[in-house]
From TrEMBL, chain B:
Record's compositionally biased regions (Pro residues): 26-37
Family: Belongs to the ABC-2 integral membrane protein family.
Region spans: Disordered: 1-42
Protein name: Transport permease protein
Chief site of localization: membrane
Keywords assigned by UniProt, alphabetized: Antibiotic resistance, Cell membrane, Membrane, Transmembrane, Transmembrane helix, Transport
Annotated membrane topology: Multi-pass membrane protein
Transmembrane regions listed in the UniProt entry: 73-92, 104-126, 147-172, 184-207, 214-234, 272-292
Organism from which the protein derives: Streptomyces albipurpureus
Top-level taxon in the UniProt lineage: Bacteria
Domain ABC transmembrane type-2: 68-297
Subcellular location per the Swiss-Prot or TrEMBL entry: Cell membrane; Membrane
């Protein structure tokens, strides 16, 4: 994390130059704004994606994720702010920028009436490959994405998963250095989702930088090195996945007593013991659970010790890391009532990250 | 970690470069293509033609996959010829005079054919926008106009098929060419040119309206009065004065008159120039609008 932050600071000083010759940031977004009438789709978004990493952009529907991707893919012009991809400015160097990117998602699609092979061949030709090279590349990509058997079938007849794999293949024909995946697994079944994830991970090991938007915490957790959480066009949290989790809290201990009627007594004893750093013991009577937030392993031992010394029977004990759902609810939940709070919460999270 | 600010890596450098501080990062995969020789990213003429060719191929394959999309081209000339020659021909030209009417209506239908086929380009563009195919193209390093030009090339091809069938039908029903092959080809060319100019209007509609149905509906609404309020099917002299005035200014009348003069002989300079003028005017106004709409990044 250290070098990244140093880069970040240097970057801020030089972000005005047209071509930022920083090799470590594949994507640089500064104060990006896009309004549609009264709707602030993007309301000053800052983010960076380090070369060769995956940035997950997480947010609910309508948060501005797709608008962000469309800006970065030169499909729409931002109203204010700046963004560079592979060193090229989205506003002033769209042609050069388009050579370096691949786009897969809700909007960039393949032609349903054409076969998989014809789609890939066409894209190869549009990317200035010779006929022979385009043919080779199409076959290569079909092979890689296990679509060789369906090569000649019109895409209309593909299953959802095949279709998504072809989308990925199509965006990789040009060997982009930066790939945008806009909700790549929305609407896919879990097995197909896993296939897509495996492919994305493979691309990353080959050195492609990925900007991934998603609504799925699981997806972000599985693929992303770092996360940016956006809501209502603003960044409300950012950092590594584990940092964001740490921000929300450590682990939660869930204890199921052998005898449910002892739930309250157990909670009382734990509170009375006054264990160091432990506050907020909760009883969930319906589920017959005692939940205790803890930060260290020692606290876990201490909690068990207190319960043992009072001879409570424990049927089950589990620890839970906060999920990204928890993270998301924590940061968006804070934001909703008073908008000023969001700025604060974003700042504190950034400080945590530093 | 220090960053060398003096070098400004080229895209190919960049693609292959690794993070100096992270040894774990894998090297760029082999076979990364060198950045194409583009100064400022402008697309050269040859590349442009290659892109148009690839896109034309796509549109042709679409037709192969969906032969029903050729129904308009294959059936319209047959249905309209039979309908007008046999159903209305007698009423318009008097019973038993259908043969004369063939020579009147076929050049008129030639004019109409271009227009009706041109309409399909609007629904095609609209479909591409809706399905996200257009965004794929728009995010690629190609001239955005090449997507539209490819559509127009394919539609002109479809028109030529329709016009060939139409003339075939005409000959079968007794069409007599009173001029020469050159003039017949000129009539076809003029109809295609006019049809191509109309395509820009349909492209504009396709880019503006929400659904292909809306594009088709609006196009029909505009086209139907233009078609029938013209000299295509009946001589305007038989119409009430106000309508005759309308047909005189209707570009389709000019085109129909020009095609008629080219096939049947007669004075043609005026109608040919008027048609060329209309085609140029329509293109000059709507093509830049359509291209601007297509390129606009909103």
């Amino acid at each position: 994390m250290g070098p990244h932050i140093v880069d970040n600071m240097q970057q801020n000083h030089r972000s005005d130059t047209a071509r930022i010759s920083d090799r470590t940031h594949a994507v640089e977004v500064r104060g990006l704004v896009k309004h549609y009438g009264e709707t602030k789709a993007l309301d000053g978004v800052d983010l960076t994606v380090r070369e060769g990493t995956v940035l997950g952009v997480l947010g609910p529907n309508g948060a501005g994720k797709t608008t962000l991707v469309r800006c970065l893919a030169t499909l729409i012009l931002p109203d204010a702010g700046s963004a560079t991809v592979a060193g090229y400015d989205v506003v002033h160097q769209p042609r050069q920028l388009r050579r370096t990117i691949g786009l897969t998602g809700q909007y960039a699609s393949v032609d349903e009436k054409l076969s998989g092979w014809e789609n890939l061949y066409m894209i190869g030709r549009l990317l200035d490959l010779s006929r022979a090279a385009a043919r080779r590349r199409a076959a290569e990509m079909l092979e890689r994405f296990s679509l060789t058997d369906a090569a000649k079938k019109p895409v209309m007849q593909y299953s959802g998963g095949m279709r998504r794999r072809l989308d990925l293949a199509a965006s990789l024909v040009g060997e982009p250095s930066v790939l945008y995946l806009d909700e790549p697994t929305t609407g896919l079944d879990p097995r197909t989702r896993n296939e897509v994830w495996d492919e994305v991970q493979r691309m990353v090991t080959e050195g492609v930088t990925v900007l991934l938007t998603t609504q799925y915490m699981e997806e972000a957790e599985r693929l992303a090195d770092e996360l940016t959480v956006i809501d209502q066009g603003r960044v409300i949290a950012e950092g590594r996945v584990d940092e964001l989790k740490a921000k929300v809290g450590g682990r939660t201990l869930r204890i199921r007593p052998s005898d449910r009627s002892q739930l309250d007594a157990m909670a009382r004893e734990l509170a009375r013991a006054g264990l160091d750093g432990i506050a907020g013991v909760h009883t969930a009577v319906d589920e017959g659970l005692l939940t205790v937030p803890i930060l260290t392993d020692e606290q876990l031992t201490a909690v068990v010790g207190v319960l043992a010394s009072h001879h409570f029977g424990i049927a089950d004990i589990t620890t839970h890391l906060p999920s990204l759902d928890d993270v998301f609810l924590a940061v968006t939940g804070e934001r909703r009532p008073v908008s000023e709070q969001s700025a604060e919460s974003a700042t504190t999270l950034q400080e945590t990250a530093a | 970690m220090s960053v060398d600010t003096t070098t400004s890596p080229t895209p190919s450098d960049r693609a292959g470069s690794t993070h100096p501080g992270s040894g774990a990062q894998p090297p760029a995969p082999p076979g990364r293509k060198p950045a194409p020789p583009v100064g400022e990213g402008r697309i050269g003429l040859r590349a442009n033609l290659r892109h148009i060719e690839a896109l034309v191929r796509r549109n042709v394959l679409q037709i192969k996959q969906d032969p029903e999309s050729m129904f308009d081209v294959l059936l319209m000339p047959i249905v309209f010829t039979l309908l007008f020659v046999y159903v209305f021909g007698g009423a318009i030209s008097g019973k038993g005079n259908q043969d004369d009417y063939v020579n009147y209506v076929i050049p008129g239908l030639l004019a109409m054919m271009g227009m009706n086929i041109a309409m399909a380009v609007g629904t095609g563009v609209n479909d591409d926008v809706k399905k996200g195919v257009m965004d794929r193209f728009r995010s690629m390093p190609i001239a955005r106009s090449s997507v539209l030009i490819a559509k127009i090339v394919v539609e002109i091809g479809r028109m030529s098929v329709a016009m060939t069938i139409l003339l075939g039908m005409g000959f079968a029903l007794g069409l007599e060419v009173k001029t020469s092959l050159v003039e017949v080809l000129a009539a076809i060319g003029l109809s295609m040119l006019f049809g191509a100019s109309l395509m820009w209007i349909f492209i504009l509609l396709g880019l503006t309206l929400k659904t292909p149905q809306a594009v088709q509906g609006l196009a029909m609404l505009v086209l139907t009065p233009l078609q029938f309020g013209s000299s295509i099917f009946a001589p305007p002299t038989t119409m009430p004065g106000w309508l005759e005035t309308f047909t005189d200014y209707n570009p389709l009348s000019n085109l129909a008159d020009a095609a008629r003069a080219l096939i049947n002989g007669g004075e043609l300079a005026n109608s040919v120039w008027m048609t060329l003028g209309w085609a140029a005017a329509i293109t000059l106004v709507t093509a830049p609008l359509a291209v601007a709409k297509f390129r606009k990044r909103t």
